[in-house]
Amino acid sequence: MSETATTLVPNPVPQPSAQVAAAKRQTFTRLLMKNRLAMLGFGFIIIWTILAIIAPLVAPYGPTLTDTASKLQAPNAAHWFGTDNFGRDVLSRVLYGARISIWTGLIAVAISFCIGVPLGGIAAYYGGRIGNVIMRLMDILLAFPSLVLSMAIAASIGAGLTSAMIAVGVVGIPEFARLMYGQTISLKEKEYIEASRAIGVKDKVILFRHILPNALAPLLVQATLGMGFAILTASSLSFLGLGVKPPIAEWGAMIAEGREYIISGQWWLVTFPGLGIATAILGFNLLGDGLRDVLDPRLRSGK
Amino acid sequence: MSTLNKPEETLNGATSLQGSDSLQPTDSDVLLEIRNLTKHYPIRKKMFSRQPAGAVRAVDGVSLSIKRGETIGIVGESGCGKSTTGRAVLRLVEPTAGEIRFEGTDIRALNPEQLRKFRTNMQMVFQDPYASLDPRWTVRQILEEPLRTHETIGQKELEDRIDSLMETVGLSPYHASRFPHEFSGGQRQRVGIARALALNPRFIVCDEPVSALDVSIQSQVLNLMQDLQQQLGLTYMFISHDLSVVRFISDRVGVMYLGKLVELAPTAEMFAEPLHPYTKALMSAVPQPDPDALRDRIVLKGDVPSPANPPSGCAFHTRCPVATERCRAELPELKTYGNRQVACHLYA
Questions:
Q1: Per-residue pLDDT, B12
Q2: What is the pLDDT of residue A122?
Q3: Where are the domains of chain B?
Q4: Cβ contacts of residue A149 below 8 Å, gap of 6+?
């Protein structure tokens, strides 16, 4: 029975591993591509991202350029989306507004992710008192309606784009913490985590190199869905005057400024930034749902 | 086994007889001395009560000394605490009580950082080779982990070490860049063994290392483990529910029932003449290849009692065919008879 000493060749796997990995990635992309709604959402995101980046190149006017001679014009050849009460071009403002909204969403989600994920991971991995304290704090954050909480935070820091980002980011922390908590609870009992502990690997290495990569799929879904939520909440804050300061073009603030004119018939002031918000959020939500369907079929809603 | 002893170590044996309860190694052959190892899991019934409503006695006072270079098999039904014993010895689960001395070092007294460093001495091979390797890591990364954790070595040496590790366990280094899912169960278990060997440990707890494998692969892996033991002078604690596997690989066998060690004996004697009634029942369940052989199949009545509420006296008395009044009242101690130990009033 000493032939075991001879080198065994693994199962004849026809392709080398790079190709296997590529094949796996292919099925992932193919599944996502087949999801038409997700692709529609992805299309919205791509379009808004590109427009946001090239806004200075494509916007016909400056976003804060006033021209009182041509104020409150309905959409026409010179101003496709019309002009507002200061004669500013609504199309240009919507395009510049995309920059702020997407940037706010990215930063806010980054804040939620970078704080929520470590908190949830630590709470679940160490458990006990630390875990309890962290998760009960998260419960407290969750107990407030998110808009009310973000208003309170934004108001206490002082109105401005940065405080809106922070407020929206903080409100999103518990979602990530809870998700990571659940993932970590189930992953830390896995034998490969125990094996790493038996080797003497440091806890933080286990958390970041074993648990986080294996928990990433649902976190990515949450991050995508969170982008939509962040854009909406940030716009709401601006609408309420707690976000960006007035001359800056931002969708929520534009709606706030234009809302008095709905009654007098200037519908374009609120419609175009409203469509901007709607399509951007729709894009992130559709993509997030699609990602979830592909990455984790168990979470699929009963469709 | 004793070929591994250095002469100065035998001198220690002489000074070690002060006080019967002291855990000075009584024998220089002893690598690991386990005394009264206990692991209780508290049961909390009420939501806000601090006082636990009871405890599951997963491991309940196991004492054992493991000699250098031997393989000690631990057998028992599922839920008897054999896996918990293995994990508690390595402090992968924190024991509730007891002492574990590894060449005199009290493992339970080590602080987390000392324990982390001490882990180079003792490793574990896991039951399920499908769950014990991180699915997102390549075999190379998996094998690098122990080396990177405890040693600072250059990339070139690291690769050489991994190549030789893979060859040691009978894998081709060519496949190091593959992921675990691209290997068969037996090959994965070889990776698990290579990972355990990476730090040159002296003691390895093998928790049912072959029970997830096909029978044909089992023998290959068992042979590999035996070869490695001879080459590297390893000491194994081999946990299994498969008596034939334990018989093949072990020098001594310990039988566990409801968290307690009920019998401990050299393999040949244990299988030739089991003493404890539970061991007898266990042995009689092993299929015999000879259809004409006379068999006294002892079929135990009832189920294993709950370890949260073990029976009084001898935990086995509820199912024991020869139980007496005394067994119900009095807990039998593990007593030594010649070179074997048994915990049963029959032999008192």
A1: 41
A2: 92
A3: 25-41+55-272
A4: A141, A167, A170, A171
Buried (b) or exposed (e) across B116-146, using 16+ Cβ within 10 A?
bebbbbbbbbbbbbbbbbbeebbbbbbbbbb
Gap between the Cα atoms of B301 and B219, Å rounded: 33
Query: If DSSP codes are grouped into helix, strand and coil, which group holds residue B100?
Result: strand
- Other beta carbons within 10 Å of B42: 11
Residue B143 has pLDDT above 60, yes or no: yes
List of domains in chain A: 34-63+80-299 (1.10.3720.10)
Rounded Cα gap, residues B222 and B210, in angstroms: 8
Secondary structure (DSSP) of chain A: -GGGGSPBPP---SS-HHHHHHHHHHHHHHHHHH-HHHHHHHHHHHHHHHHHHTHHHH-SS-TT---GGGTTPPS-SSSTT-B-TT--BHHHHHHHHHHHHHHHHHHHHHHHHHHHHHHHHHHHHH-HHHHHHHHHHHHHHHHS-HHHHHHHHHHHH-SSHHHHHHHHHHHHHHHHHHHHHHHHHHHTTSHHHHHHHHHT--HHHIIIIIIHHHHHHHHHHHHHHHHHHHHHHHHHHHHTTSSS-TTS--HHHHHHHHGGGTTTT-THHHHHHHHHHHHHHHHHHHHHHHHHHHH-GGG----
What pTM was estimated for this model as a whole?
0.78
Under CATH, to which class is B25-41+55-272 assigned? alpha beta
Q: B310: distance to nearest CA of chain A, Å?
A: 27
Q: Please tell me the predicted confidence (pLDDT) of residue B81.
A: 87
CA distances from B230 to A170, A236, B222, B236, B249 (A): 59, 72, 13, 11, 12
pLDDT band at residue B47 using 50, 70 and 90 as cut-offs: low
Q: Is the pLDDT of residue A3 over 60?
A: no
User: Longest C-alpha distance within chain A, in Å?
Assistant: 97
In this predicted structure, what is the pLDDT of residue B249?
92
A68 close to B (CB below 8 A) = no
For B211-264, how does the pLDDT look when each residue is reduced to its tens digit (9 = 90+)?
888 888 899 899 999 999 999 999 999 999 888 899 999 999 999 998 889 999
Q: Which of A3, A197, A199 to mutate to test the interface with B (most CBs of B within 10 A)?
A: A199
Order across the sheet with B105-106: list the strands: B54-67, B30-43, B97-102, B105-106
pLDDT tens digit string along B310-345? 888 888 888 888 888 888 888 888 888 888 888 888
Contact A10 B172 (CB under 8 A): yes
What part of A 203-222 touches B (C-beta under 8 Å)? 205, 210, 213-214
Burial level of B265, CB count in 10 A (0-12/13-18/19+)?
buried
Instruction: Give the mean pLDDT of B282-298.
Output: 76
- Check A200 against B120: CB less than 8 A apart: yes
Contact B261, A38 (CB under 8 A): no
Mean predicted confidence (pLDDT) in A195-212: 90
Which of A4, A7, A210 lies at the smallest CB-CB distance from B167? A7
* Pairing, β B340-342 against β B122-125: unpaired
What three-state secondary structure class fits B261? strand
